[in-house]
Design brief:
Blueprint (H helix, E strand, L loop, with lengths): L7 E4 L2 E6 L4 H7 L2 H4 L2 E6 L10 H14 L4 E3 L1 E3 L6 H10 L3 E4 L16 H4 L1 H10 L2 E4 L14 H15 L5 E3 L5 H9 L4 E5 L8 H6 L12 H11 L6 E3 L8 H5 L17 H15 L9 H15 L12 E5 L8 E3 L6 E3 L9 E5 L1
Parallel strand pairs: 2-3, 3-4, 5-6, 6-7, 7-8, 8-9, 9-10
Antiparallel strand pairs: 1-11, 11-14, 12-13
Helix pairs in contact: 4-6
């Protein structure tokens, strides 16, 4: 389909398999935005302060999220940490926890308590228990050690570890999150069917130049070359069920992103939650106009597969096509993305990615 000419789209709700909903005032502002982005199911990151390392804390957090927006299905996770034992894995599986998130130490927001470079040896008993109880391992795939060459990214340096992990634990379901390079896509394809990859909206339209120039576009992993961006776009429309949507929407107070003091690092994270589905479609529309995608590569079926079906199937959730289930409707009404969202008292403001871009208006059909 030529998206530029499409005036109305009707889709099943999106499943966003990588979200940061934070805590306290940020959580109160962000959680109601999930439905605005056409999403009814989210995989929630555990890198709070302190991180979620117990089943009790994960369930408490889930209860808080449900109290804010009960119409969303929250898949919960634990933060891989020395306190996670095989017994905790068994408890997590029994409680319905969906996965364990692995952060390499120090590579992104709230990852100071993450795993060291020799994580394969350190956490082998945990990975074996996860295989046994069928929990998903969610990987922030960036190398925490020193790079031997400037010609390789942190993500590319991590990929041999993913191959070793899959070889050692072939029955472990793994997700390489926020793929940002063509090499990452190739590695996921080369692994067996239990290894998948999520792709964000923002990696479909940002490059490294954008990320270094605009603090609201700065994230981890850093967007890469235009050729990597275009490889991600092609993967989205390939029909390959190994790749599905995970926005990695990561809110930060606007002041911390654009008003940093001299020498203070800009926090990593791109906020897209209120327009999660719309931004994916906009990125594909732009890719068609650039000639990266052919018109016939963007189909209703492939949009549904990437945004909704493949992620649900990987996490063994029901298919959204059941008769009578809600749908989302996208219509062209001249809407543009605002610069930010604010709390009712204006005390908190969070900047949005790709502000002022024209997008489909989204409504729910129930």
């Amino acid at each position: 389909m030529r998206l530029k000419d499409v005036q109305r789209l009707e889709l099943p709700p999106s499943a966003d398999m990588h979200v940061h909903l934070r805590q306290d005032q940020v959580m109160e502002l962000v959680v109601p935005q999930i439905l605005n982005g056409g999403v009814d199911t989210v995989f929630v990151m555990p890198n709070l302060q302190p991180p979620i390392t117990s089943v009790a804390k994960a369930l408490e957090y889930q209860s808080c999220l449900r109290s804010i927006e009960p119409k969303v299905h929250y898949l919960m996770s634990l933060y891989l940490h020395p306190s996670i034992t095989p017994e905790v894995i068994a408890e997590a599986a029994a409680a319905g926890i969906a996965g364990i998130k692995m952060y390499p130490q120090g590579v992104t927001t709230n990852s100071e308590l993450g795993v060291p470079a020799d994580f394969l040896n350190v956490y082998s008993p945990i990975f074996a228990a996860m295989e046994q109880y069928d929990l998903v391992l969610n990987l922030h795939g960036e190398w925490p050690g020193r790079l031997l060459s400037d010609d390789i990214s942190l993500e590319e340096a991590f990929l041999p570890e993913l191959k070793k992990l899959h070889k050692n634990f072939p029955r472990l379901r793994c997700v390489l999150e926020h793929c940002s390079t063509a090499a990452a896509l190739d590695t996921v394809r080369a692994c067996g069917p239990l290894v998948a990859g999520t792709i964000t909206a923002h990696h479909l339209y940002l490059t490294s130049d954008d990320s270094y120039r605009d603090p609201l576009a700065f994230c981890k992993p850093i967007p890469k070359k235009p050729s990597d961006r275009d490889a991600l776009v092609k993967a989205v429309c390939s029909g390959d069920p190994k790749f599905f949507f995970g926005s990695d929407s990561a809110p930060h107070p606007l002041g911390s992103k654009i008003k940093t003091q001299s020498g203070q690092a800009v926090p990593a994270g791109v906020f897209t939650q209120p327009f999660a589905t719309q931004l994916v479609i906009l990125a594909l529309e732009e890719a068609v106009e650039r000639g990266v995608l052919k018109v016939d590569e963007v189909t209703q079926d492939r949009l549904e597969q990437f945004l909704s079906r493949s992620g649900r199937r990987f996490y063994k959730l029901p298919d959204p096509a059941t008769k009578g289930q809600p749908k989302i409707v996208l219509e062209r009404k001249g809407e543009t993305i605002p610069t930010s969202i604010k709390s009712a008292d204006d005390a908190l403001e969070i900047g949005l990615s790709k502000s002022m871009a024209p997008v489909f208006s989204l409504s729910w059909l129930t």
